Amino acid sequence: MTQLSYDTASARSAADDAAEHVDPARLTDAIDALATIGARSDGGVDRPALSALDFSARRGLIERAQALGCTVSTDACANLFFRRAGNEDLPPVMTGSHIDTQPTGGRLDGAYGVLAGFECLAALADANIRTRRPLEVAIWTNEEGSRFQPGAMGSSTFVDPSRLEGFRTVSDAAGVTFGATLDAHRSAFPTLATRAPGAVHAFIELHIEQGPLLEMAGTPLGVVTGIQGVRWHSIRCTGAAAHAGTTPMAVRRDAMTLAVRVRGAIEAFALELGGDAARITFGSWHIEPNSINTIPSAVTFTVDFRHPEPAVLARFDAALAECIAQHGADVHLEPLFEHPPVHFADSAISRVRAACDALGVRSQPIVSGAFHDALHLAKQCATAMIFVPSRDGISHNPLEATDDEHLVLGTRALAHCLVELCNEAP
Amino acid sequence: MTQLSYDTASARSAADDAAEHVDPARLTDAIDALATIGARSDGGVDRPALSALDFSARRGLIERAQALGCTVSTDACANLFFRRAGNEDLPPVMTGSHIDTQPTGGRLDGAYGVLAGFECLAALADANIRTRRPLEVAIWTNEEGSRFQPGAMGSSTFVDPSRLEGFRTVSDAAGVTFGATLDAHRSAFPTLATRAPGAVHAFIELHIEQGPLLEMAGTPLGVVTGIQGVRWHSIRCTGAAAHAGTTPMAVRRDAMTLAVRVRGAIEAFALELGGDAARITFGSWHIEPNSINTIPSAVTFTVDFRHPEPAVLARFDAALAECIAQHGADVHLEPLFEHPPVHFADSAISRVRAACDALGVRSQPIVSGAFHDALHLAKQCATAMIFVPSRDGISHNPLEATDDEHLVLGTRALAHCLVELCNEAP
To answer: Does the keyword Transmembrane helix apply (chains A, B) (predicted)?
Structure first.
């Protein structure tokens, strides 16, 4: 048997070759085709997780992968895995993202990462490249969290299968459980092999930035070094309903007046503590009784604070607790969710940066402001991400767009990086 | 035929007699009974205008009035009129109020005035009092404006029937038109006579103060001299939806940040212009898309400004226009409603004050902070109101309450006043 060689020189060459074989038209055609499934009249896409539309999209991708000679498998959370064999029985390198969307979503969020993964499979086939390790493209189930909460059910279950039992009982707005849709998925694709969880060598997710930083800097590629940490809270301010016309200002207990003051205080210390990297958002508001001529009796609003530094998040927690305490019984805090900042593996980050350099494309380090499936994979294997610019920084919106040139560059960097990782020694 | 006499001495005596025949237990029992229709678990009442609950309440009152020998009629706006005949064919004296409530309303707002009117009908019957003029108790439709906007549709249509056509097309939150509910009311009560609009001699509305002034002064009865003027506006602030995690603070266009700033500016000049008599409320808010991790793209909120002085209202209008103009295209103002201050008829005010004096009860002049059906009746006939104290000044709230002693005093004053007015010469 011939001893295959994966030394530095030949590996670099194969990676360059893979990047060169990325076909711009095939990539954008695939994006256009997927965007027709769940297309909105405004140019956006509405393709709920595990809906009939999602099933239809999956069916097309399964057929495409099989035509490329890949094996297709699924798991207990309806994640799909499209595997290109390696020469050795080693843990695979993975890429991929999700194909579910926000209700008023765009055509690139998630879909781009999956279809770029498929383009890499095709490019490797065209270039007749053999890799030491298998390469898998994954579709992670229900990343958006729009149909079933929380999001990233698929990738988080892949990393921690014990989560599945709890997720199965979650219902969508129509009362359909996540478990029922998983069973329907299994029935819809009866011939797929079942993939057991197992070691993964590395995971690289390619995604649109969903923010304006790359575009503002004029940089085509972002080397994502991690995902900022987040705190979600609900704050309830209590006052007393009273008649708008009859109640003197001095005796009012207006819950909205209180809420606006608390919001201002939180915003001020969030920006002071977090500086330019802070993101503070008060996105959801519920006012009671919400009547034009009644003083608000209660206002509940949400706080979304994000920052890449654990120390800043901790100082925010302390300042928030102090702020709430200062307001006594009229202000109540309910923590909803939190996640620490994630720093991706230096080895994977280096591979992404080297891929950009090998292509001669300018890149910059960037911290992801949004959650991604990579957040969970990072717990299991060397993980990093590649970002391409979002036009006007817009995402979760039918206007979401990225220049074709950038879509292609991102895919070339992904192909380069994946081949390098696939040829890494055990 | 015996010539009936309504000279000063006998009229005063009949009025005293009517006041004495007010039955405290019957009054409070009637209030308790009506409060069971639409009762909330927190002790409040939720009885939307022309809902099934409202129909049920009306049915009970129609039966009670018929048992008292009254004739019952309705009009094109589903107002109900319970008429006790007079000895002469003269324009009637009217009292009454409304029985629809706020969604988190109390048991007295409106209901007290209607049921005190019924108590007067019963007291006059018990005392076997005949009056020169007919006495009518009215239930005015949709006073609160909670289900259909604007409020006081019934009383304003009674005074100006041309308003009805526009009101009929107004929809509630479920999409049901006001016109459809009027038709349903007509079908539900097919045997009621139709009352044509016509001259009214005087209108006296008894109501809870809905504010703290009488209680703070320790005065049992308020002689209401008028109603302060009001401006209602809707303000829409526009921003841009964007991802809470990925969008730097400096490039955000957060519609809630803008709305909070505009709210603060309006509050500041309202209080500066209006002083202690100013009432400024921002009661209703609608945030889009109202999602925890999306920056608000649009916020619509209401402004309710009230003041007794026309000059202050005019200065507020000018300051508001200037404030909106300063914010450019992102802030849009829609006027919803306005009403100038109303001064009630001196003749009717005198009758109310005389009734308090005749009972030996301390009273004080007071300007109403709230709208009432009397606002509209004042355009048609000599109108005034009687206020009783609201405990802790609370109204539009399940905790709304008035001491029984005050409820009875108010009803005695009403009975006295109505008999005096009913015996006035043409």
So the answer is: no
Length of chain B in residues, anyone?
426
Nearest residue on chain A to B247, alpha-carbon basis: A211
Query: Using one digit for the tens of pLDDT, what is the confidence trace for A329-354?
Result: 999 999 998 999 999 999 999 999 99
Residue B66 clears pLDDT 80, i.e. is over it: yes
Q: What b-and-e string marks burial along B349-388, b requiring 16 or more CB atoms within 10 Å of the CB?
A: bebbbbbbebbebebbebbbbbbbbbbbbbebbbbbbbbb
Dist. CA B324–CA A55, nearest whole Å = 50
B298 forms bridges with which residues in the sheet? Answer: B238, B288
CB B273 within 8 A of CB B317: no
* Per-residue pLDDT at A293: 87
Question: Between A255-274 and B255-274, two packed helices, what is the crossing angle to 10 degrees?
Answer: 130
Q: Is the model more confident about B104 or about A228?
A: A228
Question: What's the one-letter identity of residue A3?
Answer: Q
Determine which of A243, A297, A302, A392 to mutate to test the interface with B (most B C-beta atoms within 10 Å): A243
Does B245 contact A232 at a Cβ distance shorter than 8 Å?
no
Q: What is the pLDDT of residue B11?
A: 43
Q: State how far the alpha carbon of B24 is from the alpha carbons of A95, B359, B385, in Å.
A: 80, 15, 21
Instruction: Note whether B48 contacts A: Cβ–Cβ < 8 A.
Output: no
What is the distance between the alpha carbons of residues A67 and A20, in angstroms, rounded to a whole number?
A: 21
Q: Three-state SS across B46-108?
A: CCCCCCHHHHHHHHHHHHHHHHCCCEEEECCCCCEEEEECCCCCCCCEEEEECCCCCCCECCC
Domain positions in chain B: 8-227+342-422, 229-339
Cα Dmax for chain B: 91
Question: Is B239 within 8 Å of chain A by CB?
Answer: no
Say if A107 is an interface residue toward chain B (CB within 8 Å).
no
Q: For residue B378, give the 3-state DSSP assignment.
A: coil
Residue B46, classified by CB atoms within 10 Å of its CB into exposed (0-12), middle (13-18) or buried (19+), is middle
> Residue A155 is which amino acid?
S
Question: Count of CB contacts below 8 A, A vs B?
Answer: 197
Amino acid letter, A422: C
According to DSSP, residue A334 is labeled E
* Residue spans of beta strands (DSSP E) within A195-289: 202-208, 221-227, 229-238, 242-243, 279-281, 285-288
Q: Is A213 helix (H, G, I), strand (E, B) or coil?
A: helix
The nearest CA of chain A is from the CA of B250 a distance in Å of 8
DSSP H or E run through B27: helix B24-35
CATH superfamily placement of domain A8-227+342-422: Zn peptidases (3.40.630.10)
Residue A241's pLDDT is: 87
Q: What is the ipTM of this complex?
A: 0.86
Output the CATH code of domain B229-339. Answer: 3.30.70.360
The pLDDT value given to residue A242: 86
CB–CB of B256/B296 below 8 Å?
Answer: yes
Chain B contacts of A212, Cβ < 8 Å? 247-248, 251
Residue of B224, B233, B243, B301 to mutate, testing the A interface (most A Cβ within 10 Å of its Cβ): B243
b/e B389-418 (16+ beta carbons within 10 angstroms → b): bbbebbbbbbbbbbeeebbbbbbbbbbbbb
